[in-house]
Amino acid sequence: MRDGFLPLLLLTTTCIAAPADSLKATFGGGVLGIPWGATLASVVGTYPQGDHVFAVTPGCRAYWVKEGQQFLGIPRDGKGVLFGMDRENHVAIASVAFDFERKAQLHGTLISLFGAPAVATQSGGITRYGWRSPEGMTASITEFGEGTQRIIWLTVSVPGYRAEKDACWGQPAANNRSRGP
Q: Are the C-beta atoms of residues 68 and 78 closer than 8 Å to each other?
């Protein structure tokens, strides 16, 4: 089931500018104790219970952790986070999962922090909206699923981040392994 979430790293939401410095003030230090630019080894050291996974990040790798920590004051029992790596295996993007039932709470928190998001886009049962700082940091929401299998993701990325959807398939096998640092 974890593999089905990897496409979230493809988020390319058009975002409106968030109030100056608000994204940076909230997420500039990283996500869930992992600073931007942290090495993959550092993430593994902090969360040894995670899994190495193939991803469409510039480094073609991500690290999935089911940690369940509260985030932005919102409970996330049993939920996880996916840390995406850049070409040097440093954290450049993080997708934090929330129960769909927390949608209104998450939406309200983000609006209070960053103002109104860009107009939501909907396609194939997936809704996306988000914010962009003047420096290029982004925070976006993706909602998807059916019935009791619905989930909501908050994805935050560093300025200049771009998914590498097609580039990963041509990478050497050493960079595409699914386990190990």
A: yes
